[in-house]
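Dear colleagues,

For the upcoming journal club I promised to circulate an example of a predicted protein-ligand complex. I picked one with protoporphyrin IX containing FE because it came up in last month's discussion. The inputs are reproduced below in full, followed by the predicted structure.
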Amino acid sequence: MKSTHKFGMNNETKEKIKKRYDQILTRGERFWPDSIFKDAVMALAIFLVLVLLASFVGVPVEPKADPSDTSYIPRPEWYFLFLFKFLALYGQIPLLGKIEWLATVIIPTIAILLLVVMPFIDHKSERHYSKRVLPISIMGILVVSMVTLTLMSDVPTGPTLVGALQTIGGLVIPSLAYILLLFVFKNMSNKTMIWTAGITAALMIGFCGAVLALYQAPPSTTETVATTVVEQIQAGQQLYSVNCVECHGDDGKTTTIKGVKGLEGKQIFAINSKDVLNTLDDPALEGVIAYGRPDAGMNPFGKAYNAQGLSKSEMGYIVVFMRYMWDDRFEKPTLKPLYPPLAAGEIPSYEAQIKPIVDRYCVSCHRPQKVNRSYLMDTYDHILKSGDDAPNVTAGDMNSILMQLIQGQRAVVSGDGIDAMPPNGKLPADVVDVFKRWVAAGMPNTAADAKALPTAVPTAKP
Amino acid sequence: MHSIGMWQKLRTAYTTVYQWLDERLGLGEMYTNLLDRPEPLGNWWNTLGSASLFLFILQAATGIFLTVYYTPSPDHAYDSINYIMTGVAFGWLVRGIHHWGATLMVLVVFIHMLRVFVTASYKYPRELTWLVGVGLLLLTLGMGFTGYLLPWNQKAYWATTVATQIAGSMPFVGDFILKALRGGPDLSALTLQRFFAAHIWILPAVLIALIGIHLYLIIKHGESHFPTKED
Ligand code: HEM
């Protein structure tokens, strides 16, 4: 009796398959120990590779999620990159490209369905490669396009040469190959199919190579990420110095704002006090930074309100800094000193000593777009040359405007004169001393310049 | 000699215990049915399935360790991961293995599928093994997708935003799916909670069940042989 199977394989064929398998088994091996041995070697190799990757490559650090930072360019996990790229290329197809769900839903669904029904479409008993050239060619082209699309995923698509090359290599060539294989060359010989698939793959790889060779990646602007507490405190300190010192002072002690346009004389809480630190928890502090206190005069720093603002991670670092430096419930770790200590008679330089000092105490007000008599302190040249009353500081002149101001004196200049600097506090004596040594020695820029100067210059006495 | 006497005693003790267990558990049957099976001559390509299994077990083990310190909330997720990396002894190693293991698992499962495809091992009588396998591939990708959001960093947040948006572009049901995935119109604490539940409970439970069926079918039908001109 000949019974036909629903999917076209009859019982005789099944019997034949079983017989052949039994025959193969007589010439085979045992699961234990033969197969298990190979499996164990493979598992061990994988484990070693993972340990090496974890130790020497590690997990890339990323800044904290920031829902307000819409400028972030999203990138999926690498094994979805090919889909992402496919969507981008597909979107360029006229008319069809506008129907997004065709690519996002229909095509992946078809791909999954094809996998599901594979055993039922390809139901004949033939298994040898020579009898399955068509399916293997189709899968081969698919795998090559997945790999090349992944490789090209960083290159932007668009009406440029690399854009066109990508569209041809990533979309046009494989589509043409599929049309040829499935619809045009009906009943073609194995040779034709292999040649078609081979040439297609070679062309795709060629185009992908050309795209990668022609494309110049822009320099990446990645935010630095601090992971350890000490790194976070230091990052927070720097951000605080630039963004907050103008109103809250270098140590958060300020209770009367001075030297800030529009807020002159405003009374505020000292943000290093228990009143503030004990009543606001970390999310609340981050909230104050993100939303500001707009009615009181503190601008928001969150990216949602301020495109040049701080990222979520950065606000987090400032909070860590405030906690560890000012909150007595936290133990202050030992940090690097503000500037490399100087031996007696050693000459400070801008690079090594003055820059970190100025960044901490002055830059917050003396940067562009602030009220400061056009005196910018962000670079060596600006410190020497900028300002309405420039030069504010001259080599060897211990009575320059800057030297008077930082020693707590009023400087009489054009107009009504300037109050001491920084307006909201006094500089520590050691910092003033560094300034004095620097000016007296001739204001060297780099540490090498400072070394080259004769050390005989005596330390200036006030 | 004294030591030989010892040795003999140990042997009888071992035999007694083994026999006791064998009568109750059927250790001997297990050995013949599970381990002492005949197989066609193997090849290194045949190790990829068990490599997938090994990676799954490794991911489970390292993942369980990570949940000890990980907190699935937008306020704490990032910091808890940072703590694992800097504060916990060997936390960096465990997370590193979990991170790279995820990548490798996707790769290995995919190549395993390719080899099964190329050797046409999905044909009679192994169609169901293949079908279950397709489920395993999708679940593995699902694990990658849900796990990616958990560190709650910029990359994770925006990649998930875009991916769920893509799911939301489906006609008719898109809006529903988007909201079901996100737990609301936007990514929020609820999304993270949902992805976490899927990543550590729902998907692994289904994965374990399907792996069980997959392995049962493999033992039942035996490993297929590499096709020759005769097949
Ligand atoms: C979590 C993922 C998976 C695990 C843990 C797994 C595990 C295994 C193991 C241990 C074997 C036997 C050894 C071998 O042939 O490599 C096997 C065979 C098999 N797998 Fe998978 N697999 C997974 C995914 C898949 C996928 C994605 C497919 C296809 C869509 C698939 C289809 C098959 C088939 C048809 C066999 C029988 C192969 C033969 O008899 O030659 N598996 N799998």
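Two points we might discuss: Residues B 46, 48-50, 52-53, 56, 109, 112-113, 116, 121-122, 126, 129-130, 133-134, 136-137, 140, 211, 214, 218, 223-224 surround protoporphyrin IX containing FE (CB under 6 Å). The first helix of chain A runs from residue 11 to 26.

See you all on Thursday,
B. R.
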